[in-house]
Structure prediction request, 238 residues.
Amino acid sequence: MGVYALVPAAGMGKRMGASINKQYLQLAGKPILAHTLAVFEQAAFVAGIYLVIPEDEIAYCRAEVVERYRLTKVRRIVAGGKERQQSVLNGLRAMEGTAADDVVLIHDGVRPFVPEEVLCRAAEMAREADGALVAVPAKDTIKVVENGVITATPPRESLWLAQTPQAFRYAVIRAAHEVADAERFLGTDDAMLVERLGREVRIVMGDYRNIKITTPDDLLLAGAFLRERATPVPHPAG
Ligand SMILES: Nc1ccn([C@@H]2O[C@H](COP(=O)(O)OP(=O)(O)OP(=O)(O)O)[C@@H](O)[C@H]2O)c(=O)n1
Ligand SMILES: C[C@](O)(CO)[C@H](O)COP(=O)(O)O
Prediction:
């Protein structure tokens, strides 16, 4: 049973509002996407990476990210779709030769701070359950609001914030995506497509630093995380 990464990176980065697609913005002199792919490149248990990119950026991405940063595990770069879900499905369909029991770690191209141990925990859980969702407990109180009025305050103990990777055996996630596509159901993450088939997706503890770089504020946070890595803050105990 192999473990593979599927990295959707075919969005447009509209909320970032930058002049180039956000995944090519530089963090410590390297594109965000190269940082993300490097985590999988370095994880010995990951056998290969499938990358999904906007069609007109494939040649640029191959030269400026994959070849430039010697990301040797990238097996294929395929064109994405209009929504993230379509991009993931295109990636899954491109994973020819993948066995039903192989584990697929689906990870946003713009989450560069995912620790390797989180990948490992997710891959292990995907062998036991129908899927594994990396998430962190909600720190704030969450309100359900309709037309400006609060309609519910769900108990915080049961609320988790979904991150990636989301890990599944290939046959499970391929079937869930194909069904959603045929039924024109659009979810906001991959786990949701498996959940709606009545299958069991388990939570795996994520990391509060595993942020999705979405808006300019996230770049400030990313800069702070990288500075701390370069100069570790001494532990109070000495
Ligand atoms: N059609 C899409 C949309 C998103 N993604 C990818 O899914 C991840 C999470 O998406 P998000 O951060 O929301 O990125 P964008 O869709 O690019 O952002 P925006 O909505 O601001 O345009 C990103 O790696 C993004 O490139 C994708 O592969 N295909
Ligand atoms: C999959 C995801 O990263 C989980 O938090 C997220 O749903 C993707 O974000 P998007 O804004 O819906 O593309």
About this structure: The mean pLDDT is 96. The first strand starts at residue 3 and ends at 8. The helical segments are 32-42, 58-67, 84-93, 116-128, 170-182, 190-195, 216-230.
